[in-house]
Specification:
8-stranded antiparallel sheet; about 350 residues
């Protein structure tokens, strides 16, 4: 893994909104009913026009939700989820009141399954940052598989950890009546989740959709493949029509009594670290890395302070090597999104070397 660091200073003061796209796996440029061979695919595509296309499935994530009360300075707390010494997720949240009063909070944490290492247990750490020296204080550690889900300390109390769930996010285009589609997730013949969503346009036009599907982990059976079904309900007959099947990646791991288990070879990546200062609304900025005009990585970050003050930021950007073209220059764009128009503004372009 290559690691490189670039230091920048970005200056802009705007009202902005945050949006970031999830990079998913493209299952088909034009999705069809499930097939087993390339020849069968061509036959089915010729015989039937599907109402779903360009379906992309983001990697699954574990979802944890913690509720409780905290008495922390200015109502701000920090959290980190660790697996051994490996940090899977981190961030901060706010309570309804600042200390010394007790304020309520609800913190949702998503952990991409690609970040997990084997079957080592996960631990959630809740803590404060000392304003004078930056040290971690009042830390509380909570095993995420603990049955004792209520914890109390001098700054955290009545903490309750909800049962974990799995989150799948599917996006694409649909040409369906009034833009309404149905979905169901199955393991075998058992339905573990179902619902409906709405595309941006109704048929016969193609509308975009993005559907987040949350499934309690306890609903999923180990070692059984999961399948997502997208379909319409025929208004006259009430039957399912134009069904598309998408296999869902499993997050359940098989037990093993061997010397090694759950061994994975990760794809090689190139990592850049961009640091600097920004004066942006609510401290939020966007970034995109491009090569030959193609976006190979994108997202957003938060500076330590919001505008008009100057806040520091450190942004780690990891790019899979498979997305890069050898010997072609890379650039990173730092910018804001105007809240009213949705347009990109105050863009700064920097070469990545």
């Amino acid at each position: 893994m290559n690691k490189k660091t670039i230091t920048v200073i970005a200056a802009s003061i705007l009202t902005c909104s945050v949006f970031a796209g999830a990079l998913g796996t493209t299952w088909a440029n034009q999705a069809t009913t499930p097939v087993t061979t390339q020849q069968e695919t061509k036959t089915n595509e010729a015989a039937k026009q599907t109402m779903f296309r360009n379906i992309k499935l983001a990697e699954p994530a574990l979802l944890y939700t913690l509720q409780g009360e905290a008495s922390v300075f200015e109502g701000t707390y920090q959290y980190a989820v660790k697996q051994g010494k490996h940090v899977l997720a981190k961030g901060f949240g706010s309570t309804s009141k600042g200390g010394p009063e007790w304020g309520t909070f609800a913190q949702t944490i998503k952990i991409p399954t690609s970040e997990l290492i084997g079957n080592e247990p996960l631990v959630l750490e809740m803590f404060e940052i000392n304003q004078e020296n930056g040290a971690i204080i009042n830390k509380l550690s909570i095993p995420l598989n603990s049955s004792d889900n209520e914890k109390n300390t001098n700054v955290f109390r009545n903490l309750k950890l909800a049962a974990p769930s799995v989150v799948y996010t599917v996006s694409g285009e649909a040409s369906v009546f009034e833009g309404t589609y149905q979905y169901a997730v199955k393991q075998g013949e058992q339905i573990v989740a179902k619902g409906f969503g709405t595309a941006s346009k109704g048929g016969p036009e193609w509308g975009q959709f993005s559907q987040e599907i949350v499934i309690p982990l306890s609903n999923l059976s180990k070692n059984k493949p999961s399948t997502l079904e997208l379909f319409e309900i025929d208004a006259e007959s009430g039957k399912q029509v134009n069904k598309v099947l998408v296999p869902l990646a499993s997050i359940m791991k098989e037990d093993s009594q061997q010397a090694f288990r759950d061994v994975k070879v990760a794809e090689s990546t190139v990592t850049y670290t961009v640091t600097g200062k920004a004066s942006v609304f609510e401290g939020t900025y966007q970034y995109a890395v491009k090569q030959n005009g193609k976006v190979v990585a994108e997202g957003f970050g938060t500076a330590s302070k919001g505008g008009p003050e100057w806040g520091t930021f450190t942004q780690k950007i990891t790019i899979p090597s498979s997305k890069l073209t050898k010997n072609q220059p890379l650039t990173v764009e730092l910018f804001e999104i105007d809240q009213e128009s949705g347009e990109m503004k105050n863009k700064m372009v920097l070469p990545l070397k």
